Amino acid sequence: MTETTVNNNETKISNTAGKWLGWLAIIFGVIAFFWQPIWTGITGIVLGVIGLFSPQRTLNIVGIIVAAIALLVGIV
């Protein structure tokens, strides 16, 4: 193993953790449509951004989009 391979494995989040972060971001985004849109929307966005460091990028991008839309709707 080279040094770069070891460093790349240390910085990535596991596949399971990425799925959990993505689903939690989506759940917080959906909850933000009905209750506390600012706080739950921001929480969903943060969880999705953290999850972008995992192999589950698409799921986390969907979570970020849902939370961002709920945050914008809640602000307006």
From TrEMBL:
TM stretches of this protein: 20-53, 58-75
Keywords assigned by UniProt, alphabetized: Membrane, Transmembrane, Transmembrane helix
Protein name stated in the entry: C4-dicarboxylate ABC transporter
